[in-house]
Amino acid sequence: MAADNQPDPAVDLLAQLRGALEQLNAVAARVPGVAQATAHLPSIPAPARITAAQISAMVGAVRAQRASMQALRTSLDAFEQQLEVFERLLEPLESVSQTWAQIERRVTGDRT
Predict the structure, then answer these.
(1) Tell me: the pLDDT tens digits for 47-92?
(2) Cβ(66)–Cβ(72) below 8 Å
(3) Which terminus of the chain faces fewer neighbouring Cβ atoms within 10 Å, N or C?
(4) In angstroms, what CA-CA distances link 24 with 3, 18, 27, 39, 65?
């Protein structure tokens, strides 16, 4: 049971999936030739084991993605700091180049 005496959604979902699977099996058993055609298929493990394996795989994938995102954040933070330093280094150069451009315009008489 989940909080507040509500049914656990995961348990409810599994019950619904099992019910649907049972209904499909019942329908398939009534169709001529289906039992013979499906006899060579491998057996399917219990839904709980499949679900547990799938959930474990999903948890592992999510953890790997989160770790990747953290590494990306760290790289982006470092890049941001580098850009900030580069910007501070370029600002005086920008000022000097603007001053130099003004001097060139005065010397050459260019009014643009």
Answers:
(1) 566 677 888 888 999 999 999 999 999 999 999 999 999 999 999 9
(2) no
(3) C
(4) 33, 10, 5, 15, 36
